[in-house]
Design a protein that fits this description.
Blueprint (H helix, E strand, L loop, with lengths): L2 H18 L43 E5 L8 E5 L6 H10 L13 E5 L2 E5 L12
Amino acid sequence: MSALAHRLVLAFAALLLAACAGARDDAAPAPETPAPAAPIAKAAPARDAAVGSVDFSCTADADCTIKDVGNCCGAYPACVNVESPTFPDQVKAQCEAEGLSSVCGYPSINRCQCIEGRCEGVSGVSVAPAARTD
């Protein structure tokens, strides 16, 4: 066997042995399960019993208005009953006490509408259909 062929056989054998070798003992073992992610602050209005109750009920669109109900992200405008108090400061304090404060966005509400007895926010502009000119 030529010297070149002998070297190729030895190099190939070394590669096979290296590929079969186990992991090094001093290497840190990989974790079996990933660590749980930090909780994400909810973007929906807070409705906790410890905080005052917000009234979302209505019988007509005129019963509804936009008010800041607060949430763990800060200000949160929502459509509520015009007579209902809101408690954004209490919501903020409760979220901070539980470590849930964050920076978030909120929906753009142009007006409120009474839908099935509940004040709901409406975004965008509603346009009446064009009148026929026949």
